[in-house]
Specification:
The protein has 98 residues and is of the alpha/beta class. It has a domain of 68 residues. Helix 1 packs parallel to helix 2.
Length: 98
Amino acid sequence: MTSRGVLYHVVCAAPAASDAETFVDLAQAAGWRVYVIATPMGLRFIDAPRLAELTGTRVRSEFRMPDEPDELPTADAVVVAPATFNTINKWAAGLSPK
């Protein structure tokens, strides 16, 4: 199968986040290289070690400092699931750092 590219799966703190593994499986089956990024509270709802095993890369949840290198490749697509009201409002206000 041809790779579709890099997909960031952003996971927020909500009960539906417990299905992140299913989403990763489906995205990978569709040809995406998936990187999971969880909000700090989102970590409480996922199995980060299992997701790291599935994706081959650690789950990111901390902000990086401006002088730290960006270890993530450029994304071709981003899926935020579940997206909380708080996260959507921060994005709308331009408060989410890269």
